[in-house]
Each structure stands twice: as structure tokens, then as C-alpha cells.
């Protein structure tokens, strides 16, 4: 896939997937965004969670288009295994970022329903990764993915970046 198509596909998928999961659904759950409900210092914690999650999510999406020459969408996967940027610290930075955004909103709006939603989304992500993504990546990228998987944790980021091989094609 050419870079312009990968960028466009990633942008569309960004709106359709995390835009709905971390934007539209939380907005609906809290009845539209209104005044924050969190006490002072927690408001800052929530804002940091949302901002950090959004920054990581945007960077990870860009990596898929620029490094992997594809999109995060299963119908238009990357040509190369993406292991740069936030992927050097954690295998699932997009999912971690989306959860950070939802949890940040739960704190900002002091919403138990958003906290429960975050837990449900986290479980769905874990099941999807375990039973769909990991087997697909193992088949598509073979040894390169297995090496990456052995060195980079799935959900809790490493403290130092993995310095293994760069992106690799199917093996």
C-alpha cells in the first residue's frame, strides 16, 4: 500500500474505531460533555490521562501508515511489522492509549459508568488480541513477531525501549 492510501485509511479508521470507542460512546454515557465533576487535583490527573493517551494513539496510527505501510484496520493490514515508536515499549499501545483516554474521561467527569465501560472495553481488547490479533500476526510475520513478542510486553510498558530489529516483512 502506498503511503497516501495508508494515511487516508488510517485516518478513516481512527474516526471509526477509537473515535467511536473513546469519543462518541463516552460522550453518550455521560449525557454529553458538561462541567467536570472531579475534585481539583483529580481533574489534572484525568486531563493528563486523556492527553497522553491521545498523543500515543496519534503516534501509533502514524506508525502504521509510515512504518508499516498499512492501517490498523484488519481489512488493510500493514506490509511490515510495526516495532518503532511506542511499539518499542508495549505491543498494544493503541489499546492502552484508548483505555487511558476513557479512564481519563471517567476521572474528569467522575463517572462510574465510564469506569465500568473502560473495564468492559479492556476485556474486549484483551480477548480480541489473544484470540485474533496474536495468531494473525504470528502467521503473517513468523519469527520476527515471535522475537518481538518475547521481548516487548503486551499491556504494561517496558521502562526502556526494545532495541531489536526494525520493521520486518512477512517471513
What brief labels describe this structure?
mainly alpha, 171 residues, disordered C terminus
What can you see in these coordinates?
The chain has 171 residues and is mainly α. The protein has five helices and no strands. The protein has one domain (3-151). Helix content is 64%, strand content 0%. Helix 1 packs antiparallel against helix 3 (40-66), helix 2 (18-29) packs parallel to helix 4 (93-108) and helix 4 (93-108) packs antiparallel against helix 5. The model is unreliable at 166-171 (pLDDT under 50).
How would you summarize the topology of this molecule?
Blueprint: H1 3-16, H2 18-29, H3 40-66, H4 93-108, H5 112-151
Helix pairs in contact: 1-2, 1-3, 2-4, 3-4, 4-5
SS class: mainly alpha
- Number of self-contained structural domains: 1
**Distance between the amino and carboxyl termini:** 18 Å
Largest sheet: none
In N-to-C order, the SSE pattern is HHHHH
Poorly predicted regions are 166-171
Question: What proportion strand?
Answer: under 5%
Mean pLDDT: 92
> What's the total number of strands?
0
Number of helices: 5
Instruction: Name the overall outline.
Output: globular
Rg from Cα = 17 Å
As a percent range, the share of helical residues equals: 55-70%
Brief summary of the model shown:
With 171 residues, the chain is mostly helical.
